[in-house]
Amino acid sequence: MFDYLGVLVAVILGLSLTHLLRGLSKLIQQRRTVKPYWVHVVWTINILIYVLAIWWGMFWWTKLQVWTIEEFFYIALYCIVLFMLASMLYPPESPHDLDCEEYFFANKSWFFGIQLAAWLLICLVGLGSANRRVHGVLCLAWLASTIAYLTFTSLEKIVVQ
């Protein structure tokens, strides 16, 4: 069963990575006309790391012999949310005069609103605040918490059956 789910997960997470990397690439290629925003770039890095960590963590699910429909939908939904987060950071077709700060704040309600329970406090503060400094702290807090989680958690013990 995991092979079947693994294909779906790989496609969705692969699309997430593609969207984020394509967005970063366009920021570099169109650097003369695009107005980058450091908070937006750090959120891009945060979601990139998160997608890769989830993809790596999925390896441990291969040991699970029996799958329920709830587990299937949970993992599929989790991957879909990650794709949605990636898509909230960059438009599908990036205009040459993209203002990343403006785009980020235009989508912040969706970006923070669709996230799951992990990092709920960061999401709630981000959802409710329009303060640029607060958003600077939030993206750094997310990065620090993700790195801490990856450093201090043994993913293989999460699903060992």
Structure characteristics:
161 residues, mainly alpha, globular
How does the SSE layout of this entry go?
Layout (H helix, E strand, L loop, with lengths): L1 H28 L8 H21 L10 H21 L10 H14 L6 H9 L3 H21 L9
Helix pairs in contact: 1-2, 1-3, 2-3, 2-6, 3-4, 4-5, 5-6
3D architecture notes:
With 161 residues, the protein is mainly α. The protein has one domain (2-157). The chain is built from six helices and no strands. Helix 1 (2-29) runs antiparallel to helix 2.
Brief overview, please?
This protein is mainly alpha-helical. The protein has helices at 2-29, 38-58, 69-89, 100-113, 120-128, 132-152.
Q: What ranges have pLDDT less than 50 throughout 5 or more consecutive residues?
A: none
Kindly state the percentage of residues in helix.
over 70%
Structure summary, number of beta strands: 0
Radius of gyration: 17 Å
Taking the alpha carbons of the first and last residues, their distance comes to: 16 Å
How many domains? The number is 1
* Tally of helical runs: 6
Largest pleated sheet:
none
Q: Which descriptor suits the 3D outline? A: globular
Our estimate of the beta-strand percent is: under 5%
Order of helices and strands: HHHHHH
Helices and strands: which structural class? mainly alpha
Query: What is the residue-mean pLDDT, rounded to a whole number?
Result: 84
